[in-house]
Amino acid sequence: MQGQIVKIISDTHFVKTSNEVYECKCRGKFRNQKITPLVGDEVIFDEKEKWITAICPRKNALTRPPVANIDQGFLITSCKQPDFSTNLLDKLIVLMHHHHVVPILCITKMDLLSKEEQTEIKKILSYYQNIGYTVLYNTELAKIKKQFKDKTTVFTGQTGSGKSTLLNKLDANLKLQTGEISLALGRGKHTTRHVELIPLFGGKVLDTPGFSALDFHMFSKEEIKDAFVEFKNYPCKYQDCNHLKEDHCAVKDAVQAGKILKSRYTNYQKLMAEVEEYR
Ligand SMILES: Nc1nc2c(ncn2[C@@H]2O[C@H](COP(=O)(O)OP(=O)(O)OP(=O)(O)O)[C@@H](O)[C@H]2O)c(=O)[nH]1
Ligand SMILES: [Mg+2]
Ligand SMILES: [Zn+2]
Predict the structure, then answer these.
(1) Which end of the chain lies in a sparser environment, N or C, as judged by fewer CB atoms within 10 Å?
(2) Which CATH number does 2-56 carry?
(3) What homologous superfamily does CATH list for 62-207?
């Protein structure tokens, strides 16, 4: 039989077919091949023995969070508790580009900001909109619901950013566990412990445990360059310009002229430096 893994708890894989969920184990064979089944994987399984026998070819596989076959990523980004960080946001965007997942910025906790702080963040977000990304606020439930149809969407973002809270708001029947943020940050504790695939509004959504820090050493310079999509609007004299130490760089000029958001460029510099250091 064929089904999709919707949850994994230790060595139990919950495999969903059109009408039932089977609790399957996994043979060592995959481990030898260095493939681990992930939530989102389509698998072939023996319904009698409850063994997963094969993993179907994947569209993509992410490691953080560990999920497969993803179309789009809701980057759940809080304005406060945890604090808004363009650095984290830009890293997540690079990660999504790397896996061919369409990033959608989803902003939470605007209500915790003063009017002035809100204006400041909205200015930054309108920049992201202008370079082509969809930006949604967690108060725009109707708009958010429309995004899910016929897609597999992963919710990702820092612990306490409000992933599970938003899902509960979208569908009150879900009753996902949510955490008290002051406690979560203090103890570095995650409220959501497992990745879970949930059918929602004509699509599939994956709630995932948040993270507290990220490292991105696996990227190449080319990948990072590609993920800063707006840089392509400023062709440099040299085609392979890294936009770092080069003279007459159109990207650096655009930063100077205020056409490229300063934080985008500094985050780019930091990522490129991390790659350099890692090599
Ligand atoms: N003021 C305010 N609080 C929010 C908002 N969204 C979520 N919260 C609160 O933030 C806390 C953490 O929310 P969760 O939904 O558990 O966060 P999470 O991203 O699922 O966290 P993990 O499961 O640990 O990754 C809870 O106390 C929520 O009530 C918001 O828009 N405004
Ligand atoms: Mg959660
Ligand atoms: Zn350049």
Answers:
(1) C
(2) 2.40.50.140
(3) P-loop containing nucleotide triphosphate hydrolases (3.40.50.300)
